Amino acid sequence: MGPPQLQTAIVQTQEPSLPTSSLRLTVSHSVPIPALPSLNHVLVRVLAVALNPTDFKMVTYFPQPGTNVPIGCDFCGVVEEAGSEATLTSFPRGTRVCGGLFPYGRTERKEDAISGAFAQWVAADVSQLLRVPPTLNDLQGAAIGGICWGTCVLALFADPEALALQGRPSRPDEKNIPVVVYGGATATGTMACQLLMLSGYSPIAVTSAGSAPLAQVYGATRRAIRTKEVMGFEGFGHRVVLGENTYSRDANVELYNRGNEWANEMQTSLDQGSIKPHPVREVEGQWQGIIEGLGMLQRGEVRGQKLVIRVAVFHIPARKGQRVTDAVARNCVALQGGITRSVAPAVLDLERDALRATTAPWAGMPKLYHNDFPYPYRQC
């Protein structure tokens, strides 16, 4: 049984009564679920999302009201369908993944802007998706996303017109060259510091005095030069038009391919625990929480944290008709206001003692993670 035809998502509204300075966003329950535009795409059921400043800036300065296309960039979710058997082999159903999208602006191909992260379902190109390790929960997976590390890869390594550093985590530079990271305590800054350190460089973070300790935790060593204005969406491989201004970019297949290569570097570093997400701060409220969180970013109320929101509310199903005992259920779910909410996958590291209290085939299983089930969660 496949997904339904319509979904809930955050879209831009045409409401004329809203002031120009407000975020013209609304929760829509009639947004089409995206079709897979290529054999290399997968349909992902979204579990959690992370907010970026670009999410409120794009709808404020480059609005496209009434398009009924979900907004949002960074997500964590579970693979449900794939465009081909080959893709399904690499990303089986039930694989927990994170990634980034860019649903803003106009492209030369309509199918390139059909999916935004702030929705129940997204269509994502697997070339730059990451498998989320069991050491990270859904919120942390969303914080890793794809926009921060993708922007860092372009600015520091992949773009020949930017720094074009040659080191990488699998082949670090041996000279330990210092590299200045302006805004080193932001989510993109802490990711840049980590990638630089792993690639053999010495990141020097420029931050406020209060934010300096955070940057140091993520690898900064101490407190134009040559510049290029890098736009993170350049790595998506298609043209993005944001009106007649300096922000529009033509398609760049070279950067797209280099970004794909770096996805492998990121995956290895993530699996080894070398890359850590920015400190997360959960905003309650599901869909309204997304709008509230974007308002917090717009008002400058967030420092040193990545705002994340749970989108899906799931519970663990019984396998083969067996019921999960109350003892295990207490470890799996939390009840708040009568609503069953998901607990982070890392918390679902059920120990053997708890599992012994359950009926077969659960009994004696040392670990329980998403990938133990083809469809690991069922929506409440």
UniProtKB/TrEMBL annotation:
**Which intervals hold domain Enoyl reductase (ER)?**
20-309
Task: Tell me what organism the protein belongs to.
Answer: Cudoniella acicularis
CDD domains referenced in this protein's UniProt entry, alphabetically: enoyl_reductase_like
Q: Please report which protein family the annotation says this sequence is part of.
A: Belongs to the zinc-containing alcohol dehydrogenase family.
Give the protein's recorded name. Enoyl reductase (ER) domain-containing protein
Is the NADP keyword given for this protein? yes
Query: Does the record's keyword annotation contain Transferase?
Result: no
> Keywords assigned by UniProt?
NADP, Nucleotide-binding, Oxidoreductase
Pfam families assigned to the protein according to its UniProt record, in alphabetical order: ADH_N (PF08240)
Annotated GO MF terms: nucleotide binding; oxidoreductase activity, acting on NAD(P)H
